[in-house]
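Something for you to look into today, if you have time. What I am after is a single protein written out in full by you. I want to see for myself how the chain folds. Could you add the entry underneath, on a fresh line?
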Amino acid sequence: MNFCNLKGMLKVKDLDIATGGTKVVLINEKDARALDIHHMDRVEVNKGKKTITAIVDIAESAKAVPAGKIGLFEEVLEALKVKNNDVVCISNAPKPESLTHIKNKLDGKELTYEETACLVKDIVDEKLSMIELTSYVAANYTLGMTRQETLFLTKAMINTGNVLKHKTKIVADLHSIGGVPGNRTTMIVIPIIISAGITIPKTSSRAITSPAGTADTMEVFCPVSVPMSKVKSLLNTVGGFILWGGSINLAPADEKIIRVESPLSIDPEGQMLASILAKKASVGATHLIMELPVGKDVKLKNLKEAHHLKEEFEYLCKQLGIKINVLVTNSEEPIGNGIGPVLEAIDVLKVLQNFKEAPQDLRCKSLEMAGILFELVGKTKNGNGRELAKQILDSGQAYKTFLKMVKAQGGPIPDIKKLKPGKHSFDVLSTKTGRIKDIDNKAIAKIARIAGAPKDKHSGIYLYKHMGDKITKGEKLFTIYANSNIKLNYAKQANKQLTSYII
């Protein structure tokens, strides 16, 4: 029987609009009535051998979509490989089985591996609406997840994406749970580690609640989205990379979950653990340094929270066969001077090129982490790792490796003189003389984001003073940069309402 005999046949209308991820189709109300389709129903849309499931919106006039046609958003057009006036088949689709599992989670029930795997597959296949996915994220945020649920989610995320295979027995990786503005140690540690002959494939997320993620800052230099076919070449020619994890289908459910977390500015513990470790396992990591920053203005407020999370990471890594060293660090203020992709990229180059004016806190922390990673993988004896890292950085070898990595990922030779912050700026001056007692990480991050970071890579903040520094009345504390006068004015207003520095 012809596939379309029991279904509707409609001509494609290219709406030339993207939803941002969810697959959506638009049907005229006359066709919807004839096919017994309603708002937010799911339908299967078929063209040849390709079939996708999409959410339905209904057009109440022929102006949007006339009868006999179906409006396709960009995600559906791309998935089906169709164009204007192609004929597609449409029929009602059953609700995903995972909706039952989401309701069970909302009711406080613990999910099994099979239920979690089903849910993750539906997330990856984009069978859930944004409301349904948000309900799952919100349930995990409010009700929490057991250790088993977190392990199940981690394994399900690994099993629904690509997994890198390596010829080497040791594959290093590092990660910070974030929350500290300007903490771009990864971009310095990676070339140091590669320079010593150790494989380190680093995938990073874009910013969720911060003014920049590692992927956002690395993108200032070169593409961070590459096809999977290029990944092996990067490993063979360079020994590592810094890429956006979403580009190479590693734990693909993660990026879809992040799209929900980002506007809500939430990061549920279980999902955070699964997100991080699924990506580490997917890149084939055997040894992992995990940084847990602690401070009143970051995710972890005290040592009790940090030690709890440390135990969770150690338990999960044992189950996944990853050797881990968890570092609990004091993070009461931003690291480096630049906050925002371009300004952070300038800091990174200054450290890698051994500039005298390079931020020493960023340099020292990078050397410490690289040294600990050297010791974890057995490259040096305990206590000697930092010295090896310092030798590699001071000799210029780390910078040469960074250049090689940027070139391999498709970027030009970095030129620090060409890295310019936003064209509009405002200097925030000290209102009194004294010494810097405190810097509010959240306030600094919020002002930088209001200025436009990370979407506008040139926006952000440049800090002139850190905790303990002396300051005189009228001296600059920091400068706000933006590419829009409107956003700069918003950032200035936010600065008045927030207490970023205490003197």
About this structure: The first strand starts at residue 8 and ends at 14. Residues 98-144 form one domain. The chain is about 40% helix and 20% strand. The mean pLDDT is 94.
